[in-house]
Specification:
The complex is a heterodimer of chains A (about 300) and B (about 800). Chain A has about 300 residues and is mainly beta. Chain A has two domains: about 110 residues, Sandwich (Immunoglobulin-like); about 160 residues. Chain A contains four helices and 18 strands. Chain A has a nine-stranded mixed sheet with strand order 16-9-8-5-6-7-3-2-17, with no helix packed on it. In chain A, strands 12, 13, 14, 15 and 18 form a five-stranded antiparallel sheet that branches. In chain A, strands 10-11 form a two-stranded antiparallel sheet. In chain A, strand 2 and strand 3 form a beta hairpin. Chain B is globular and about 95 Å long. In chain B, the strands form ten sheets. Chain B has a 22-stranded antiparallel barrel. Chain B folds into two domains: about 100 residues, Sandwich (Immunoglobulin-like), CATH 2.60.40.1120; about 650 residues, Beta Barrel (Maltoporin, Chain A), CATH 2.40.170.20. By secondary structure, chain B is mainly β. Classes of the chains: A mainly beta (about 300), B mainly beta (about 800). At the A-B interface, helix 1, strand 1, strand 2, strand 4 and strand 13 of A face strand 24, strand 25, strand 26, strand 27 and strand 42 of B.
Chain lengths: ~300, ~800
């Protein structure tokens, strides 16, 4: 799918784009809660900020003085997040956050108003292997190169959603177009794929970065060359979080050109955070708790040679 | 209702029988003397009555008059008049051939005798374009294009270059019924919206109904585009064609049996890929980008009373990025028609057609990992239609239509690591039936009227039934149950009465006012929530969860011709109310989703406007100016709901194709008999779009946020464009005794190279990879699909 978009970009050569500076209506500066907590053995952070004017390219400042807790609704455990410099945090101290299948409630109290959201910690899915393919030059990458592919199997039963995050040589593939999400190993919940190896576009397309060759319009650098390292994480998400990320993907990722024919109207990404007790402050953002599996693989010369011989 | 129909029938019968005793009928066909093509809409004028009639879509006319001597004048634009004195003592047949005016090779009609049909008939909100005008207009890449040409008529617009289809009076693309020889064409574009599927070599006549739509047409809310193909020269063989920048074309026509049977076959293929292959290797390993179409038609005249037509269209777009991956779409249509004249006054046409629109795509680099999706809509239709020419002032049209839809929205498999899953969707079946009657009467010399009624019925049957509950508007409807119906069992059925009427009141011999009202009902819906409609959008029948769309339209117009019909002028105002308009929840998943009905919202619409049209028919300079002032809005709960976050009641918002001002100018100038110039100018108000107000910092992304959940709150800059072309006639053919004709056309599209905005979009910078701890940059980009001038050269010939 992604390739298709890139090819659409290349085919029609007479489209053109220019950066403009339109005047926007006043920003509403609503409360934003960015709460994606996971089981990795590292500091877990929840960021609470205010939205900014769309063209304000500065780092938003933390809303200070909030009380942030996450409660395990199955066993009553409470995780209290402490206020740090730019986020509220919780340290695992030897025990990871949460348990599979448990439901969690985030509570944020600030300026006398309380905001809540719930999330369920999904089933852990292991990454079996990461392999590399040797590819000849093509329309997009005009030299021989390697593409990575990971293998993971969705457990039987509907409703498992995933966010696959990738790092190349320790750099996070964080472009909007690299948001790689799946439901039951397929593209969306409406398609009845389940209990299988993740479909190929998920396994492969979005873990291979396509970065433009400097000063070239439609040429891209090889995703991987011998010596490069790939690291993949699968975060479990729930269906609501999937819908949220889906909206983030479509509303932040605009490769331009003919792909604009296929864009959907701009609308606000759904949120699972609610202002309780009749508060009037508007809120956006998302709360999700995730199990995480990881795998790293380096493209050694030996693996490269093997891939080339296949 | 029943009583009215019975009463009307009795009245008509009695009128016919009493009149029949003293009256006789003159009837026949009018044809082009050069090639035997039927003349559609030619005038038959009876001088004694200062009244007349016109030929129908098959060139047939019939007039019943009291016995006597009459002078008849037969007229058609661009043809010499023909006069006949007849002694009407018994029923008689008069088949005539009109000769094209013996002037220069003419692209645009520059005739001295333009009939004033536009003022005199009851039709309003109707636009006609003849193929010569279409081929004379400067076109994108030099390719004459029917869909692009009709966008120069009042009330017709588009969302921009690259968008498929067209918008009529504030309606969406899926609300137009596009007919090619009566068969519906679901996708009228090649290469998204850049070219239309109709080969100008095979098209004879184009008529667009925007309002006052006759009862014989139905099934779409906004318009009917009736494209009629040539029948093929029944006198001699002709070869025509052209070499263009994008297509090369070839058409062959000729008699199968002189004056009795003829055929035409016309084909086109794009050849950008063939060029590309010569210069670059990027299209190796099976990559392809091309489109083609083949149009064919044959007709046989069995007797003076019977004629059979068989026509077909086969077109396809192929877009592959290697031998295994890519997508394609195509239309196939076939129409069989039988014209028969019962007696002299009852003309019948019985059509049966088949239309198959299929599209799909394939992904995956091997057989163990692939994704293969195919979808199609098959339509079978049987359509008998009768016209009874009662007398010189009364005409009755009646008939019916039976349509069977078989929609296969997704035959799809997903193969992952060797395991194949059928992710396809169930077939959907529906039947649409209609009975219609229309009556035309010239009540007095000044007043004539058309009234009609269409009864339509729709039945969605067989298969799985999904039941949904109500929920907060704008969010996915929760599924409450799934049941199943047998193959023939009805899931949902609807019926509607669609009244159609129009009148004309002649103010002076050259001026009239006209008014019309019509109700239209649409039972199948184009599902598309993207900026422009695309070839892989889905057609969805009405179901237990999706109600048919309805529209009521009133229009009032003033028509006047000046200086012996040298100039035409018309002004129309219209107001249209629509119900059950389709919109989508935010983040709607419309692609291979068996729960698609849970993603769809329903609302109300309104569109109104003013259309002005002025045309110069004669002289070295001809052309027209069209101006439309319009507004098109929707009100859908769950969209544009402001601060009403609990009930999410929608407020009115402009549609994506709401364009306030729409000015189009088409001009043709004959410099010398051999050289002609033409120019088009368009000015269209910017289309609405949604601008964000805020950005949210979430997981390193700058997520846009729209305050108050607004939709289409801003407009992109205006669109304007000039196209020019120069044509040199008779370069080789038609000179020094060589037969035939040819021309070389040089055209420039977007002559002053304006970067007309198609859209403005907001995104974070995508070229640089964001790094943790540093904020990402956001930006707004204005996109011009055609960012420069596009010159083209084409050579057309005919011999």
């Amino acid at each position: 799918m992604k390739k298709l978009l890139y090819i659409l970009l290349v085919v029609v050569g007479f489209a053109c784009e220019s950066t403009i500076n339109p005047t926007l209506e006043n920003a509403e500066k609503i409360l934003v809660i960015d709460a994606w907590v996971n089981q990795k053995m590292e500091r877990q952070e929840i960021r609470i900020t205010r939205s900014q004017s769309y063209f304000d390219n500065t780092q938003p400042t933390k809303v200070a003085g909030a009380i942030v807790t996450v409660e395990d609704l199955n066993n009553g455990a409470i995780y209290t997040f402490q206020e740090g410099t730019d986020a509220y945090f919780w340290e695992p101290n030897g025990t990871p956050f949460g348990e599979t299948g448990h439901q969690y409630r985030l509570t944020v109290t600030t300026n006398g108003e309380t905001f809540e959201a719930q999330s369920t910690l999904g089933r852990h899915v292991a990454i079996d292997t990461i392999m590399f393919h040797h590819e000849e030059k093509n329309l997009l990458v005009r030299e021989a190169h390697y593409e990575a592919e990971f293998f993971a199997t969705d457990p039987t039963g509907l409703g498992d959603a995933y966010w696959i995050k990738t790092w190349k040589n320790d750099q996070y593939l964080g472009k909007p177009g690299e948001i790689n999400i799946a439901v039951d190993g397929g593209f969306t919940a409406s398609q009845a794929v389940d209990g299988q190896v993740f479909i190929q576009p998920i396994r492969r397309d979005l873990i291979n970065p396509l970065d433009k060759v400097p000063d070239k319009q439609n040429e891209f650098l090889p995703p991987y060359l011998p010596g490069d390292k790939v690291y993949v994480e699968i975060h479990t998400i729930d269906q609501q979080a999937f819908d949220f990320l889906w909206a983030v993907y479509y509303h932040t990722n605009h490769p331009g050109g003919l792909t604009e024919l296929f864009t959907i109207p701009l609308a606000n990404a759904p949120t699972n955070i609610k202002n309780t007790q009749g508060g009037t402050t508007k809120v956006a953002g998302f709360f999700n708790v995730a199990a995480v599996s990881t795998k790293a693989q380096q493209l050694t010369q030996e693996i490269a040679n093997q891939a080339q011989q296949k | 209702m029943k009583k009215i129909i019975i009463g009307l029938s009795l009245y008509l019968l009695s009128m016919m029988s009493t009149l029949a005793q003293s009256q006789h009928t003159i009837s026949g066909y009018l044809k082009d003397a050069n090639n035997g093509e039927a003349l559609i809409g030619a005038t038959v004028y009876i001088q004694e009555l200062a009244n007349g009639t016109t030929t129908n879509a098959y060139g047939f006319y019939s007039i019943t008059l009291p016995a006597g001597t009459y002078h008849l004048k037969f007229q058609y634009i661009g043809f010499d008049d023909l006069q006949r004195e007849i002694k009407l003592e018994k029923d008689m047949k008069l088949n005539l051939e009109l000769k094209p005016e013996n002037t220069r090779l003419q692209e645009v009609v520059v005739t001295d005798k333009v009939p004033d049909e536009n003022v005199r008939n009851t039709e309003m909100s109707v636009s006609k374009l003849d193929i010569n005008t279409i081929t004379s207009m400067p076109a994108f890449a030099g390719e004459a294009d029917i869909i692009k040409s009709i966008q120069f008529l009042p009330g017709v617009s588009t969302v921009g270059e690259g968008g498929s289809g067209f918008n009529v009076r504030g309606g969406n693309v899926g609300q137009n019924l596009v007919l090619l020889d009566e068969a519906p064409v679901y996708q009228s574009s090649h290469l998204f919206g850049f070219f239309s599927v109709f080969n100008p070599d095979a098209v004879k006549d184009v008529k667009l109904y925007k309002g006052g739509i006759p009862a014989k047409y139905g099934g779409r809310l906004s318009s009917i585009l009736d494209v009629r193909m040539k029948e093929g020269n029944n006198k001699k063989f002709n070869v025509s064609g052209g070499l263009g920048t994008v297509f090369s074309r070839l058409a062959v026509e000729g008699p199968l049996k002189k004056d009795k049977a003829s055929f035409i076959v016309a084909g086109r293929r794009s050849y950008a890929d063939l060029f590309a292959k010569a210069f670059t290797d990027i299209l190796e390993d099976g990559a392809a980008l091309y489109f083609y179409d083949l149009t064919a038609k044959a007709n046989v005249k069995f007797s003076d009373k019977d004629r059979l037509y068989l026509s077909g269209y086969f077109g396809r777009d192929v877009f592959k990025f290697d031998s295994r991956q890519g997508f394609n779409w195509g239309n196939n249509t076939a129409t069989l028609r039988w014209n028969h004249v019962y007696g002299n006054r009852l003309f019948s046409n019985i059509s049966a057609y088949y239309s198959n629109y299929d599209y799909g795509f394939q992904f995956g680099e091997s057989d163990i990992d692939k994704y293969d999706w195919k979808a199609r809509v098959i339509t079978y239709n049987f359509k008998p239609e009768f016209t009874l020419f009662i007398n010189a002032t009364n005409e009755l049209t009646f008939g019916g239509e039976a349509i069977l839809y078989r929609s296969e929205p997704g035959n799809a498999i997903s193969v992952s690591n060797g395991v194949s899953t059928n992710i396809g969707l169930e077939k959907r079946n529906a039947f649409e039936g209609a009975l219609h009657v229309g009556y035309d009467e010239k009540i007095t010399d000044r007043l004539s009227m058309h009234c009609g009624l269409r009864f339509s019925y729709f039945n969605y049957f067989g298969g799985t039934v999904y039941h949904y509950d109500h929920t907060t508007p704008g969010t996915q409807k929760p599924l409450v149950g799934i049941t199943s119906k047998g193959d023939q069992e009805s899931i949902a059925n609807y019926w509607n009465l669609e009244p159609r009427s129009s009148f004309r009141y002649q103010l002076t011999p050259t001026a009239s006012i006209k008014g019309s009202y019509n109700r239209m009902v649409q039972y199948i819906h184009l599902i598309s929530n993207t900026t422009a409609s695309t070839p892989i959008d889905i057609w969805q029948p009405s179901t237990n969860n999706i109600e048919p769309q309805k529209a009521d339209q009133v229009a009032l117009g003033y028509f006047q011709n000046f200086r012996k019909n040298r100039y035409e002028f018309s002004a129309e105002v219209y107001y249209k109310w629509t119900q059950n308009q389709i919109d989508y929840i935010d983040g709607a998943d419309l692609f291979i989703n068996r729960f698609i009905e849970s993603q769809i919202l329903s609302g109300r619409g309104r569109a109104y406007g003013l259309e002005l049209y002025g045309k110069k028919n004669r002289g070295r300079l001809t052309g027209w100016i069209s101006y439309s002032l319009g507004k098109s809005e929707l009100k859908v709960d769950g969209i544009n709901f402001g601060n009403d976050v609990t009930n999410r009641q929608g407020q009115w918002y402009p549609t994506r194709f709401d364009q306030r001002h729409n000015l189009k100018i088409a001009a043709f100038y004959e410099l010398t008999p051999r050289i002609s110039l033409s120019a088009n100018f368009s000015f269209v108000s910017g289309t609405p779009t949604t601008f964000p107000t805020d950005r949210l910092a979430i997981q390193g992304y700058a997520v846009p946020y729209v305050s108050d959940n607004k939709r289409n709150n801003v407009r992109i800059p205006n669109y304007h464009r000039l196209d020019v072309s120069v044509r040199f006639n008779n370069i080789w053919r038609g000179r020094r005794g060589r037969s035939g004709e040819d021309n070389l056309t040089i055209a420039i599209y977007n002559a002053y190279a304006r970067q007309n905005p198609f859209s403005i979009y907001f995104s974070q910078e995508i070229d640089n990879r964001p790094t943790a701890g540093t904020p990402v940059n956001t930006r707004a980009q204005q996109l011009a699909i055609v960012g420069t001038l596009i010159p083209s050269i084409s050579y057309n010939f005919k011999f």
